[in-house]
Write a structure and sequence with these properties.
By secondary structure, the protein is α/β, with parallel strands linked by helices. 57% of the residues lie in helices and 12% in strands.
Length: 309
């Protein structure tokens, strides 16, 4: 009798697990379908479609039926990207993307760029700010060699020019969704990335303030803080953490999918593996411990780079 009850219990548990897995799978399919329908016929601006993430977003949103405005600093590459998107999609279900040359190093051209963006379709529904620049090195090196060129690069101030230029249009229509793809360093700092982290903190603060200011106009602000999975992470930070940066990051395809979902969920997202997430929690709950670990890592790096004779 007991054996029969044990077998029945096992089968009951397995049945519940299988049913739950099936429900979860169907729920995921429904969410994926709903996410795609949210961009159909929507005018979507991608500030850097030539980046790896921008390219993944362009493919995903294009197949979802969005009216894309693709921005980038290289016109020939933009044209090549559009040709590839059109050749890989059904022309009866998609729209030919519009192209706008956007070079953040030429700030004098921004007013003209904004006019060109608004002329593409007359309005905007979704703005994805995914442009970025990486600045590496100890703080004294950054101050002497790197900080001066930053205003001509992609800093948080560049975003403000674009947003203030298109904001009147969004407010008049009382709709719109602005998404910021930000680094986890907008919330968590890493040694040797002082200028980069400061810029990411600044843009995070700007979007947090903007969120409250435009809510009454029906405009949604979402931020996605992530650890990108790239091969370009600086060697100093890699040596300092003793981890391969790529293993801690989120792939561009995962990011693009999450961006699409965010249009429905309309919330702040943290996309990171377990170690960066744990570090963020330690920074919030045990700041003294966090700073002690950071300082110890810097001392160890210095010892490795400058061994005793």
């Amino acid at each position: 009798m007991l054996e029969r009850l044990d077998v029945t219990s096992v089968w009951l548990v397995l049945s519940v697990v299988v049913v739950a897995a099936g429900v979860f799978y169907l729920y995921s399919l429904i969410l994926r379908h709903l996410a795609k329908t949210t961009v159909r016929n929507k005018v979507v601006l991608i500030t850097d479609s030539l980046s790896t993430l921008g390219n993944e977003c362009a493919k995903l949103f294009h197949t979802g039926g969005a009216r894309l405005i693709l921005c980038g600093s290289n016109w020939e590459k933009l044209e090549t990207q559009v040709e590839r998107l059109m050749s890989e999609s059904d022309p009866t279900l998609t729209f030919p993307p519009k192209l706008v040359e956007l070079d953040f190093s030429n700030m004098e051209s921004i007013p003209e760029v904004i006019s060109e963006i608004l002329e593409c379709y007359g309005s905007l529904d979704v703005l994805i700010f995914n442009s970025s620049m990486k600045v590496k090195g100890p703080v004294q090196y950054c101050l002497e060699k790197i900080c001066q060129p930053v205003p001509s690069g992609v800093s948080w101030l560049n975003y403000t020019f674009i947003i203030t230029g298109v904001l009147p249009s969004l407010i008049s229509r009382r709709t719109g969704h602005i998404l910021l793809v930000n680094s986890i360093q907008g919330k968590l700092t890493v040694p040797f990335r002082t200028t980069y982290a400061a810029s990411k903190h600044a843009v995070q603060a700007f979007f947090d303030c903007l969120r409250a200011e435009v809510q009454e106009y029906g405009i949604t602000i979402s931020t996605i803080n992530q650890t990108p999975s790239t091969n370009s992470a600086d060697e100093i930070t890699a040596k300092w953490t003793d981890f391969k940066p790529k293993s801690l990051g989120v792939t561009p395809k995962e990011m693009a999918t999450e961006l699409l979902k965010t249009l429905s969920s309309k919330k702040e997202i943290l996309m990171a593996r377990s170690i960066p997430k744990a570090a963020l929690y330690v920074r919030s709950l045990f700041p003294n411990l966090f700073f002690a670990i950071m300082a110890a890592g810097v001392r160890n790096t210095a010892a490795v780079e400058t061994p005793d004779d």
